Each structure stands twice: as structure tokens, then as C-alpha cells.
């Protein structure tokens, strides 16, 4: 199979994965605070041209638009863009929505003052390609801001836990949580971006009474979990998957025994200047 056919098939699988379940509901349930944190860290304001890469439903793009910037939200998955448009309209935010692959952005060199991504571009399989695209479309002296789950944090460990149940990754694909590693970012961007801020943060999640509710939410709504469980089912490992996931949420629950569940999701917030 030609490399272009392989790439097209891979992108199709990614679109299908992120369109499965209900990722917009996850955003509304507990992910909403992340977008504004990235927008604030990047100092986004009136008059700026901003691109949000792998924007999903606009968790960062919409706050950027509400801050007065001219914003373009791009994503590979049309269903997420559709949900984002509806959310933006409800909040009175005006921005452009463009279907685009993070590894082949359809924008001219140096088109944007600020290029951001909140737990989005990290899931593009070929890190060097997408990093190079972020740099290319950002003007020299512009800002690149990234918020990514860390390898050591709960979501990084979740992806590691479900990995053995998932379909094998395509050749050359790298684990998404590497974007939450300072060393990996420095290796990816080299001297093309000077990072002035690399800060770890926690997203506290207390939306679930019991750990198993958290597990059910991810198994029903989160594309990577849905894909891994479907593959486990095809291989007769569905019960093993369920037991593994149950142990995982019990281990990572930080709530008091008998009380509401509480989880702490670690991320890396990186803000740099395009040289």
C-alpha cells in the first residue's frame, strides 16, 4: 500500500475515533477550565491573529475569541467542529472553523501571531511533522502555546494502561503524552522556539461521586478508550479490559474513602517564542 494511502487510512481512523462517544460532553463535564488557562498564559487579547490547532470543540479557541482575538479553530474531525460552532454561537463568540490535519495545515507561512493547542495536537501521530507545522504558520517573534497531559500524570498513565488492548499504532507514531515532557518539547522544537515558561499544573476533577462513574464516563465518551475496548472485545479480552480499568480508577482516586471521588489530572503548560 502506498504511503499516501496508509496516511489517509490513518487519518480516517483518527476522525472516527474522536467522533465516537461524546467528547463534547467530556469537555462540558470537566475539561472546560483548561482552555482559558492556556489563553491567559499566552496573553491573548484584541487584535491578535490566533490559530488553535486540533481545537476540538473550541475549548481554547472560544475563550481566545471572547478575549478579542481574531481566531481560527482547526480540527481533523468535522463532528467536533460542528459541536464547537454551536457552543460558540451560544456564548456569543465569533471565530472561523476549518477542517484541517495538524500535520498538513492549510495556512500560509507566518499567518498567525499566536498558535495554540490544548490537549489536541499531542494526539497527532507524527510529532515532528505537527511541531514543524506549528512553527511554520506562526510568524517570527510570535507565540506558541501548548497544554498537554504529562506522561507521569493520570491521563498519561491511562493511555499507557489501555495501550495493550488498543489496535497497534501505525509505523512511526509516537505516544501522545510525550508532548507533556519538557525534554521532548525541547527536542521537537530545538532552536525554532524559545520556551519562556514550562509549568506543570493540575486539573482537579470532582464531577463523579464514585470512581466507577469516572470509569464509565471514559468508557462511554472518550475516543481512545472506546477504540481500545472495542479492540479488546474483538480479541475476547473485554472482561480483562473492564477489570483493568476498574483497578486503574480505584488506584488514581484521591478522594477520601467513602466520600466523593476526586482525581488530579497533571498537564504541562508550555509557552514559547517562535525564533
Show unreliable segments.
none
Radius of gyration: 18 Å
H and E string: HHHEHEHEEHEHHEHHHE
Examine the coordinates and then state which fold CATH places here, giving the name of the CATH topology. Rossmann fold
- Count helical runs: 11
* Total number of strands: 7
Order of strands in the sheet with most strands: 3-2-1-4-5-7-6
Q: What is the residue-mean pLDDT, rounded to a whole number? A: 94
- Shape designation: globular
Largest sheet: 7 strands, mixed
Oligomeric nature of the chains = single chain
Strand content: 15-25%
Q: Quickly count the domains.
A: 1
Fraction of helical residues: 40-55%
Q: Considering the protein shown, what is the CATH homologous superfamily?
A: Vaccinia Virus protein VP39
Description:
The chain has 275 residues and is α/β, with parallel strands linked by helices. The chain has a single domain (3-158, 170-203, 266-274), classed as Rossmann fold (3-Layer(aba) Sandwich), CATH 3.40.50. It is built from eleven helices and seven strands. The chain has helices at 3-19, 23-31, 34-41, 61-66, 78-91, 127-137, 154-162, 182-189, 211-221, 223-234, 238-252; strands at 49-52, 70-75, 96-99, 112-118, 138-149, 193-205, 263-274. A seven-stranded mixed sheet has the order 3-2-1-4-5-7-6, with helices on both faces. α1 packs across α10 (223-234) and α9 crosses α10. The longest helix has 17 residues, at 3-19. It is globular. It starts with a helix and ends with a strand.
